[in-house]
Each structure stands twice: as structure tokens, then as C-alpha cells.
Amino acid sequence: MQSNTELLSDFWYVVAPSAALARGKKLPLRLLGHEVLLLRDNAGVVSALRDFCPHRGMPLRYGTFDGCEVECCYHGWRFDMAGQCTVIPSLLEGDATDTRKIKTGRYPVHEQDGLIWVFAGQPSEPPAPPPAMPIAMPRGFTHVTSVIFPCHVDHAVIGLMDPAHGPFVHRSWWWRSAKSIHAKAKQFEPRGQGFAMVSHKPSSNSRAYKILGGDRSTEIQFQLPALRREHITIGRHHVLLLTALTPLDAATTQLHQFAYTSMPLLRALFPLLKIFGRRFIAQDLDIVKKQQEGLRTEHAPLMLMGDADAQALWYYRLKKEALAAQTEGRSFENPLKARTLKWRS
């Protein structure tokens, strides 16, 4: 299958956990091939500037930030939290230059649930907020791990939603065994700019779910551009897992994984569970690196087929529709239909 490898703009992307950016500090990052500088002022407000001084092109990340303005290290030009120039030290007193007309540029930024989101685009009007979570989270998400995948975001996404690789890539005593493969059937339906595996009991061969105890149910949802959300309900308690894939550029993707739970015991176990989570993601990272060796030397269309690959095919259909809607200046129309998928894993 041939795919459009264009990166999706005009979407919110998770770029960092809130805890990664303290007051009065800056955090440089890359998003869709662009350099971005996150700033948190002394009042706690976050801004996302283009990491570029329009004077000589120096990245502002190398300058100083006093909690109100960032100063370029090359000639001392200063920019406020809105990206407007406030000071040019080389100007003589009485110079008529209006520094406020000089801007480095900024991106819409939003902070919620302990996450910092940046909108990859320059909308004419403020964009709607990022997708809301299905439950209130007084403590917000806990940052579990963040890993760089050396691949295009498309390969990271279809690997994320692949239901058949578990017994092979994640074969371990605490998750799956080679003998655990059996037939499965799950109901799916379109949701927003994505789809959902509707609420169901977790698979019996997924051992990690068993530590939660009680009468468990889970719903897994995917939304463009690259968000996977799993909501597990155990009686009156909840576990919410969010995996966000952020394309740094066309060849590099950052995976962020976050978790929240209302269960006090499970919160106490999070430090231990992080160890297993990192191991799980390390297995995915290893397989992605090996996959890239094949993709670097061979360029034949990929063979996506059957219900096990249906979610990957759906992703490409959703992405195609999103690009078409942006080009044609119209609203997104979800092209998917509700259906039951069957596979072995």
C-alpha cells in the first residue's frame, strides 16, 4: 500500500508534560520540522515561540530568559511572551524604529491535565481546545515515559494500533506468551476524527490487566493526529492511559505515554509499573529500529491486509480525509463505518 507521508498540520500535539517546564524556565523542542521554544513566565503561564531571532537567525534557546522576556545571545534583542520585540540595544536614543512591529512568531499553546499542547499551524482564529478526557482528573496525568522513535510518524502510529504483534514483540512472563494466541472479535465505531474499540472486557491473555482486579472493562480510542487513549473502568475507579505520538520531523517521532488512576493502591504501585512500561516501549523501539533497516533499502508498497491491519488502513483513510478537508476548506467527514473486526493474537 502506498501512503501519503505528509505530516498533519493544524492539529494539537502533546509536546511535554507540564512538570518538564518550571516557572521562569525555557524548553526547546522540535515540531513537524520547526524549532519551537516553550517559555513559562513567573506567573506560570506557558507560551510557545518560534525559536528564531529575525535579526540574524540565531535560535533564541541559546539566550537568557528572565521569566518575562527572552534575550537573544547574539545582539541582545529581547522578545516578550507574545513573540514581539521589545528591545534592540544597538538603536540610538530617539531612533524612530517601532520594535513592536518586529515579531519572532508564536504558536497557540494550551495546558490541561498536566500536559502542554502546541497547535501545529497558524490559524486565523484561536483553535478549539485539545480533546477533553472522558473523566475529571484532579491530579492530572502522571508522566510515565518519553522515547524517540527513529521513524516517520505513520509507522509509529500503525505500530501503536497493531493488535497482532503483541505475542511476538511483547513476549514476556508478565504480558504474553507464544502459546497465548487465540481468536478475538472486537466491535469498532467511528468517533470524531478517529475511531473507538467500544467498551469490552480486556483479553484474557493480557496478564497485566489482572493486577487491577474487580470487574474490569476497557475502551480504546484513536484520534487524529496520533492519539491513543485507553479508559479502563474497575467498579467506581478509573485508569486512563494516553499515548501521544508527536512528529519532530519527517524521520523522527517522539512517543509520550501518560497515565492517571483514581485507585490509591495503583498510584502507589506506579513507580514499579513504570519499569514494566519502559520495558514494553523498549520492545517497540527495538522492533521499529529493525523495521527501518528494511524500509531504508526496499521501497515496495506495504502489504496491509485483513482485519488485523484494518486499523492501520483506517488511519490512512482518516489522514487522507483530513488533508483533503484542509485543502478544500471544508469540515472533516469521518469516512469510517461501524463494524466488528476479527483476528488472532
How would you sum up this structure, described in words?
The chain has 345 residues and is of the alpha+beta class. It is 19% helix and 33% strand. It has an eight-stranded antiparallel sheet, covered by helices on one side. Strands 2-3-4-9 form a four-stranded antiparallel sheet, with no helix packed on it. A four-stranded antiparallel sheet has the order 5-6-7-8, with no helix packed on it. The two termini are 23 Å apart. The model has no long low-confidence stretch (mean pLDDT 89).
Shape: globular
Order of helices and strands: EEEEEEEEEEEEHHEEEEEEHHE
- Contiguous low-pLDDT stretches (5 residues minimum) are none
* Gyration radius from CA atoms, angstroms: 22 Å
For the record, give the distance between the C-alpha atoms at the N and C termini, rounded to a whole number. 23 Å
Separate helix tally = 4
Q: How much is the average pLDDT?
A: 89
Q: Count of DSSP E strands?
A: 19
Q: Which structural class is indicated by helix and strand composition?
A: alpha+beta
Largest sheet: 8 strands, antiparallel
Strand content: 25-35%
Strand order of the largest sheet: 12-18-17-16-15-14-13-19
Helix fraction?
A: 10-25%
